[in-house]
Specification:
nine-stranded mixed sheet, 10 helices
Length: about 290
């Protein structure tokens, strides 16, 4: 693996190249997340030794610093960054696996730069506007932000877990529940005073509020596959994935495990990385 630093007008972007660019006789496989950085793809990368895999840290996260004076995470800005990385590689168009907020970035990328990606596997994009209970989901999201602002990281993360583990639409029953206890999730109850977490603050609201450009996605030469974890079912990210797939005239492709199904316990959220990688390989090879 080699690490490169790409300087753009607004950020210094760190990206990693695993293997030579011509490995396996296929285009590079780019893996992106948000707000997760390249570290989260270690297990998945290990299951593609025959491929050139590119991972990167989004601007303002991990090793990538920003110089644009902003703290928000707009998908269009991150899409332009990924486009710049692909151009720097000089080996495009690429194949892409994108997870969570990274899947939102990838949908914005294909809409704006349709010749960059041959096949996109967009895994569980957390898009509020596409679900029928969007207003209630926005209220639930605001509750996470409020808990974080009022009591710190532990309270915010407990509220986030409560939101993302709720099954079905966000009803009055959801909002009537007492605030979750951080200690019940093994989270700290003390407040360290920080309020800059991209997941718990409103800095990433542009990600979950993004409306995919369906017309541009359908018109693009890119094969877009919307993926959903078999355990996600009627969770928010699962419901959003099924809805996006429907907008594109397809059914979501089911992958093993959950929202972090490719993880191997790096963040205490182990999935089934071997089975996940096997499914991803099958989907990519189906493209011919």
């Amino acid at each position: 693996m080699t690490t490169q630093m790409l300087k753009t007008s607004g950020a210094d972007l760190a990206y990693d190249v695993h293997g030579p660019l011509t490995a396996g006789g296929r285009p590079p496989l780019v893996m992106i997340g948000q707000p997760m950085d390249a570290r989260g793809f270690g297990a998945l990368v290990s299951h593609f030794p025959e491929r050139t895999v590119i991972t990167y840290d989004p601007r303002g996260i991990g090793r990538s610093t920003r110089r644009d004076g902003r703290v928000d995470h707009a998908p269009q800005v991150h899409a332009a960054d990924v486009h710049a990385v692909i151009e720097a590689l000089g080996a495009g168009p690429v194949e892409m696996f994108a997870s969570s907020g990274g899947a939102v970035t990838a949908l914005a990328l294909v809409a704006a730069y349709p010749d960059d990606v041959t096949t996109l596997v967009a895994h569980e994009p957390p898009l509020i506007p596409v679900i029928p209970d969007a207003r209630a989901a926005e209220r639930a999201r605001a509750g996470v932000r409020d808990a974080y602002e009022e009591k710190g990281w532990g309270a915010g993360m407990a509220a986030f877990i409560a939101m993302t583990s709720w099954r079905g639409e966000f009803t009055d029953d959801y909002f009537a529940r007492p605030a979750p206890d951080p200690a019940a999730f093994g989270m700290p109850t003390e407040d360290d005073g920080s309020r800059d977490d991209p997941l718990l603050s409103d800095r990433s609201w542009a990600v979950s509020s993004y409306r995919p450009d369906v017309d541009a996605l359908v018109a693009a030469p890119t094969r877009v596959v919307i993926a959903v974890g078999e355990e996600s079912g009627d969770l928010f990210t699962g419901r959003a994935s099924v809805a996006v797939a429907g907008l594109l005239g397809q059914r979501a492709t089911v992958f093993p495990s959950h929202h972090g199904g490719f993880l191997d316990g790096e963040f205490g959220y182990a999935g089934q990385p071997e089975a996940f990688a096997r499914k991803l390989r099958e989907v990519l090879e189906d493209a011919g």
